[in-house]
Amino acid sequence: MGVRHFLQFKDLSLEELMHVFARTRWIKDRFKRYERYWPLTDRTLVMIFEKQSTRTRLSFEAGMQQLGGNAVFLSTRDSQLGRGEPVEDAAQVISRMSDIVMIRTFEQEILERFAGVSRVPVINGLTNEYHPCQILADIYTFIEQRGDIRGKTVAWIGDSNNVCNTWLQAAELLDFNVHVSTPPGYEVEPERAGLYGTDHYEEFRDPMGAARGADLVTTDVWTSMGFEAENDERKRDFEDWQVDAEMMRVANKGALFMHCLPAHRGEEVAAEVIDGPHSVVWDEAENRLHTQKALMEFLVLGKIKESRE
Ligand code: CP
Ligand code: NVA
Questions:
Q1: Nearest CA to ligand 1 atom 7
Q2: Domain with 94 in it: what CATH number?
Q3: Residue 106 class from Cβ within 10 Å (0-12 exposed, 13-18 middle, 19+ buried)?
């Protein structure tokens, strides 16, 4: 098989995903014991950012260093990418000087054009359409807290954005259900979400209906990066799509609350929820580090044999 990429969640098979989760646990345990693990010595990760970031940049940069490699940060502002160098030309050059690339950009198509000519694995660090690294961490966090996610119900409250689309792809792969509640006009577009069908999600007009019986309630900002011009309109349209204590009460007992962060308390989530007992947002953010280390190990080195585990 040629170079493997992680451009959307379904780029990994179920079996590969389970391998990455198993490796995450091993890598995280070792990290917590301060035991050095340097499988990517002398390897270089290039990170290209066309949008802002705290968690994604830090988790990839620190993660690569902790695996023994180096990370180089490029942004549109201070590289030739911002001056119109064709994506394919940039990909040719960058992938000859590095071992793995992570890109945060606007349209998924830009990422796909880069990956189309890249000699090394390319990871989606967020596009308008998908945020697969986030859902890798979210599902790992669910498994860590509650065990298998298969057959469980996730409630998505808010915009049918990149994070929502990725939850829907993951539901197909891992066989769980998503209850989606968006304001009218912001519904899921199955083709844009890259879905095979509508078997794994159900749409609810009423957000309380979506939260009822959920094992996990999750949401995201009302206005994603790149859509700032719609901010005022969205604030009006999303007013009733706030995850609050009442919504958590109708979810299953022991339901978790997740948010990819950054969060806006008083908008998509009430402070009492994100800072309350259901919330696992800090573990969720930390797990970006551990899951992405396992992902990079897999994409660069392939499956690590049992003897090395
Ligand atoms: N959740 C997430 O991707 O955060 P950043 O935008 O800070 O990277
Ligand atoms: N949906 C958000 C996620 C930020 C991590 C955005 O795209 O801005």
A1: 54
A2: 3.40.50.1370
A3: middle
